[in-house]
Design brief:
The structure is a homodimer. The first copy, chain A, has about 525 residues and is an alpha/beta fold. Chain A has 3 domains: about 220 residues, Glucose-6-phosphate isomerase like protein, domain 1 (Rossmann fold); about 180 residues, Rossmann fold (3-Layer(aba) Sandwich), CATH 3.40.50; about 70 residues, Winged helix-like DNA-binding domain superfamily/Winged helix DNA-binding domain (Arc Repressor Mutant, subunit A), CATH 1.10.10. In chain A, about 45% of the residues lie in helices and about 15% in strands. Chain A is globular. Chains A and B meet through helix 1, helix 5, helix 6, helix 11 and strand 11 of A and helix 1, helix 5, helix 6, helix 11 and strand 11 of B.
Amino acid sequence: MSSYQRYLQYLCRVPSVGLSLDISRMKFTTEWLTAMEPSIQQAYTAMAELEAGAIANPDENRMVGHYWLRTPQLAPQPELTAEIESTLAAIKAFAAKVHGEAKFTDVLSIGIGGSALGPMFVADALGHPATDKMRVHFFDNTDPDGIARVLSGLEGKLEKTLVLVISKSGGTPETYNGMKLAEAAFARAGVDFASRAVAITMPGSRLHKYSAGWLAQFPMFDWVGGRTSELSAVGLLAAALQGLDIDGLLAGAAVMDEATRSKLTAQNPAALLALMWHEGTGGNGLKDMVVLPYKDRLLLLSRYLQQLIMESLGKRLDVDGQRVDQGIAVYGNKGSTDQHAYVQQLRDGVHNFFVTFVRVLEDGGDPLELEPGVRTGDYLDGFLLGTREALSGNGRQSITLTVNRVDARTVGALIALFERAVGFYATLVRINAYHQPGVEAGKKAAATVLDLQKRIIQNLNKTPQSIEELASKASSDDLEAVALILQHLAANGRAIESTSSEKEKGLCYAACS
Amino acid sequence: MSSYQRYLQYLCRVPSVGLSLDISRMKFTTEWLTAMEPSIQQAYTAMAELEAGAIANPDENRMVGHYWLRTPQLAPQPELTAEIESTLAAIKAFAAKVHGEAKFTDVLSIGIGGSALGPMFVADALGHPATDKMRVHFFDNTDPDGIARVLSGLEGKLEKTLVLVISKSGGTPETYNGMKLAEAAFARAGVDFASRAVAITMPGSRLHKYSAGWLAQFPMFDWVGGRTSELSAVGLLAAALQGLDIDGLLAGAAVMDEATRSKLTAQNPAALLALMWHEGTGGNGLKDMVVLPYKDRLLLLSRYLQQLIMESLGKRLDVDGQRVDQGIAVYGNKGSTDQHAYVQQLRDGVHNFFVTFVRVLEDGGDPLELEPGVRTGDYLDGFLLGTREALSGNGRQSITLTVNRVDARTVGALIALFERAVGFYATLVRINAYHQPGVEAGKKAAATVLDLQKRIIQNLNKTPQSIEELASKASSDDLEAVALILQHLAANGRAIESTSSEKEKGLCYAACS
């Protein structure tokens, strides 16, 4: 079979969103696809149960309902349908009011993880300086220096800045800290915060109570996980304020949802993606997924997919409690730019990856001819096709997703496509895609550090004390943690570091005042 | 040995740039380090020869002299020393003149790969809206839509925009195409381009000739490779224009160069890094390097390192011509943000990585207390320490680089540290770090696509023709390539797609006019 015959044989099209999936450059055989068919049929069944309202996240006893966001009538209870529809209507009404009053020019969105990666991806994929109705800025960390830099870009504009605080529980420290730093900046500028602040959170949460007197509140639902929340108020409010086509986002996702409910595997791009991930990684994360969209607007797609894929699939235990250490590492930025960074390694080097190309057919921009019949966009497409060919020539596998253009419908469709592929893949490898137990360990470890820091600060005094002395007073036997915390305190003028004259004591620390 | 003892035993400090390297959470033994000592001594020798002007890139018969850029008196010939010094003086004089005249407010930097990743990393790491003397914008691709978006942000400002075109040979298509699109935009706006354009290129190159009448020209040297060119005119001119401390960048790099010339391995952080990469990857790329700086300003470090490390190390053949398929995959963005994206997988999932944390001791920004003794920066540092601990607790290895702050000296030192670590590692695994033979294959494949496209366009006419017919007329037997090229032409109104009434013909294409 020629490569063109193989291309035609396996090409999967979703004409309603102008998307196609080419898996011909993956090394599966027809026999393997046939052998996998019973497993993928199981994945269809599991997904149908999830969409019907089954408890798909047993750890948290939660339904998983992000698919209902774009087809509200599918929600298993009429109250949920009503909640989705009324939230969407409220978002649109709020954005229209803000645009109509023209009191605000800028949006400051405070959130992290699912409350930042989706909004940032969509803002960058669909935004344009000439057409955006508001300019969107992000706090997505608890770095006071990084936050000060964003605030510096808003110097003199806080009066006209609408602040979104996005946290399901209100207990995410980075988001809470960012909010407090924003409040402080508004206070310094003499600008009222509450009348410019909007909370997106679960009814009853700590943030919900905290934001009672704010300009507005929008609900997050317990049946939407952070990494699949872009098409809830989390993503839609900022997008609507920016002036993006949120109906297009939802419609694109709904169309893709419908297409990926097909039980005909050859016609279901999410199923084919999941199968190719299995083929590419051995069903065991043995290879990385390099995401290479050849379009500047899709630069942040890989960061979005890192969370969606890695947090969903990176699991220690399977559904039977067996140790599996699953996952797929995802990275990439954009082509042809990344060709200059690491196609050398992809083509010639360690064979530990497969590529997912994203090809965008419409060039956009200036159709300038560099020579007769050759435009700058021809180079972009030529580099994609050439790299795909060069990689194949050296036995490196690739998937190619082709879309007509990067618009709201396409972006919605891409989000829905990868969401469902992740769900299918999780069934194939028998893991729960909808919890994140490992995140808790890191949070607990950080809380331990902060607790220890408090006890160290309480025990600093005018007399320089050794690390051992301070550890003992702070009731810790973790000398390394005590030493590292003291380094940080000393660097920030909160402890005075000195070298003891008694050599065995090493570094000593005293209080500053 | 306690973890604190191990931490202290292996901690490597470079006090002159406030940097330390902690390798204690990697699983090497003292015996292994001893066994590797002869190999790392060979790496010191090879590096000394390189620094003395040996032909380190035999493919291109080139010296590799990026270390001379920050210590010009080390260059093996006095003419090179003079060239480096005069170029630096010219950069400073030019930037001072531009700042003094105040005719320009914005810089548009056009380049890709080494001519973009370093400049973008440094601009973001050291820039600040309140202190930057000029605002820097980048074209780093041949995406006409992406370029139009950057130009839209410069609407009405072209008069005051200085354009840098950066290409060693002048033959890089993305850079050439970006330049042509910039020229067209200036022409549309009625603004003269040449009097605002600056070329950074090799004397005698195509771009050097093309730019004869421009505002200025700065030289690139044949002994500086793209991925190590940040501290040449490539990176320094844009940085100087932005108002960044280029003397600090050079001084930080020079200090690190000096520290990493030590043949005492325990005191040489570049040698220890290279050894830890070997330990972490088995000397075979078996694990990925996840780069996690806990500081917003260092977000682009991983993209910079992707090129420096992957293009240098991703090699098919070793120096003896044996097939080795070497390399190390590099990815990461920033903490604690990325914890919400994939620490779930790092901690619990597939064990295919080691982490390089970058810890910044000074918080900067607003020292707001969230509660007594607890600041937002404490959370940032606590998340780093907590994640390092949680990963160790599950057998995942990490390196921690600690710096006092992100300033020009530190950034220069980081660049120099990783440059030399790459050089050492290449010697350890016996590959040439200074060529990139695989890049050529991708370029050739892309050129083949563009040639084929030209022949297809020549053969389009008013009569719809099948893919087979057009392939035959274009003298190609690659039906897949012909079909994909026609898709792209049709999507951009350059061919008319129709379905033939003769079923076996499938899609047909005609010319548009």
